[in-house]
Amino acid sequence: MNMNEAIRILKEKGYKATGRRKDMLEYFAHADGYRTAKHVLQHMETLHEGISFDTIYRNLNLYDEVGILETTDLDGEKHFRMKCTTSHHHHFICRDCGKTKDVDICPMEEVAQSLANYRIDDHKFEIYGVCPTCQIG
Length: 137
Hints:
By secondary structure, the protein is α+β, with helices and mostly antiparallel strands. It folds into 2 domains: 3-82, Winged helix-like DNA-binding domain superfamily/Winged helix DNA-binding domain (Arc Repressor Mutant, subunit A, Orthogonal Bundle); 90-136, Dna Ligase, domain 1 (2-Layer Sandwich), CATH 3.30.1490.190. Helix content is 42%, strand content 20%. The protein has 6 helices and 6 strands; from the N terminus they run H-H-E-H-H-E-E-E-E-H-E-H. The protein has helices at 3-12, 19-30, 37-47, 53-65, 108-114, 132-136; strands spanning 35-36, 69-74, 77-82, 90-94, 100-103, 126-129. The protein has a 3-stranded antiparallel β-sheet with strand order 1-3-2. Strand 2 (69-74) and strand 3 form a beta hairpin. Helix 2 (19-30) packs across helix 3. The radius of gyration is 17 Å and the shape is globular. This is Fur family transcriptional regulator. Keywords: Cytoplasm, DNA-binding, Repressor, Transcription, Transcription regulation, Zinc. Pfam families: FUR. InterPro entries: FUR (IPR002481), Fur_C (IPR043135), WH-like_DNA-bd_sf (IPR036388), WH_DNA-bd_sf (IPR036390).
């Protein structure tokens, strides 16, 4: 997803695209992988003196709710990234740096067969580990 799409979604859902919200979206548009609320706060403090953690977290949850960001849980902490808008795929997520790699296979065909009498509404498949760059460092 890009900045224009994100701003369009915000406005369609009835929310204002304030300067702070745009700056947060800009951060995610250029971030490679998942980021914590602390990462976002550190960045936003350089642009908006006195911005609160509550403001950051409220907006991160708003972006997740309206489908701009997607989340994952790493080591008990919520991480965020700009939502993918490409074809169906899953992710490898580096536990050290948060970068992701697309995984183009999906185990749902096999899972759906074993759950033949169940209605599946959605799914999420993530693989966690350490990327080659972090293994070297």
